[in-house]
Amino acid sequence: MVLEKRWLVVIQMLQEGSLCAQHCLNNLLQGEYFSPVELSSIAHQLDEEERMRMAEGGVTSEDYRTFLQQPSGNMDDSGFFSIQVISNALKVWGLELILFNSPEYQRLRIDPINERSFICNYKEHWFTVRKLGKQWFNLNSLLTGPELISDTYLALFLAQLQQEGYSIFVVKGDLPDCEADQLLQMIRVQQMQRPKLIGEELAQLKEQRVQKTDLERVLEANDGSGMLDEDEEDLQRALALSRQEIDMEDEEADLRRAIQLSMQGTSRNISQDIPQTSGTHLTSEELRKRREAYFEKQQQQQQQDPPGPLTHPCEKPTTSSEALSSELGDAMSEEDMLQAAVTMSLETVRNNFKTEGKK
User: Fold this and answer.
1) CA distances from 184 to 9, 154, 170, 235 (A)
2) What is the mean pLDDT of residues 278-299?
3) Which GO terms describe its cellular component (predicted)?
4) Which domains are assigned to the chain?
5) What is the pLDDT of residue 152?
6) Catalytic residue set
7) Are strands 167-172 and 147-149 parallel, antiparallel or unpaired?
8) For the stretch 115-126, what's the b/e string if a residue is b when 16 or more beta carbons lie within 10 angstroms of its beta carbon?
9) Cα distances (Å, whole numbers) of residue 282 to 118, 124, 146, 218, 287
10) pLDDT tens by residue, 100-152
């Protein structure tokens, strides 16, 4: 059988206020045998017994007046009850408490496994460790459920409590029968997950919700930044394409201007761009004739290897240079035209240099 967090067979009173002594006793006896009223009655009885003993020294004595002014040492308004109250409550069931930490008990060298139950106290908090059937359970009312303790771990568990400052009491006597003890005599249970402290699970849930909220915020922030990054990337791509298109347009414009300049024989000549030391240079007419001869040579080569059908430009009135450009466009591509114009320009420049060198 698997021991679940809220296993109903083992009775465990959960902490309410500071009534840990009441929970400790009822968890030990496995039933709701004591109420706060009954424990308060025992505490008042103990207070009265102590008052009577103090009065034996005289009701007018300083010790007696001091005793009356002090609060009760057996209970308080928070619900705390002393070891004397717990001990007197257990006497009703024929049970006795022995201090486990005492040197007298330690000299007996009794193995804790051979005991039946323990009551532990630290800073006004009480809880029970009890054997039910053949297994040990920590019935601390601050836990969300009974905690299974193995036989090999019991001694270490008690030693650890002692190190932390706990007072441990061995419960001597026969405990009343209970359903959990009878059932666990026949079966053993397993605990898949140890119980948590009361409030710890709620705190973890709150922490998980906070972490989830923070994670959602981070994811939302990342998604937002991711969208911004994508927008920036799209903008960068658009700018790059725009720059590329502008560059292509500039190249095309430069190409058109170069062809136009190379075809214009009347507006200016290349010799204007270089220093002239004599008046002998190629005229525009000579440059035009050389170009026509070069283009005729190119046309002859094209006729030997005729190209595919060409798209003819629309007819319109043209000048002599425009007519030459149109004829050139019929037989050559713009790239060929540019190459031809550059070649002719270079030839003109070289001839000018040669002429000047001879002088």
Assistant:
1) 9, 18, 22, 74
2) 63
3) cytosol; endoplasmic reticulum membrane; lysosomal membrane; mitochondrial matrix; mitochondrial membrane; nuclear inclusion body; nucleolus; nucleoplasm
4) 19-192 (3.90.70.40)
5) 93
6) 20, 125, 140
7) unpaired
8) bbbbbbbeeebb
9) 125, 120, 114, 77, 6
10) 988 889 888 899 999 999 999 998 899 999 999 999 999 999 998 999 999 99
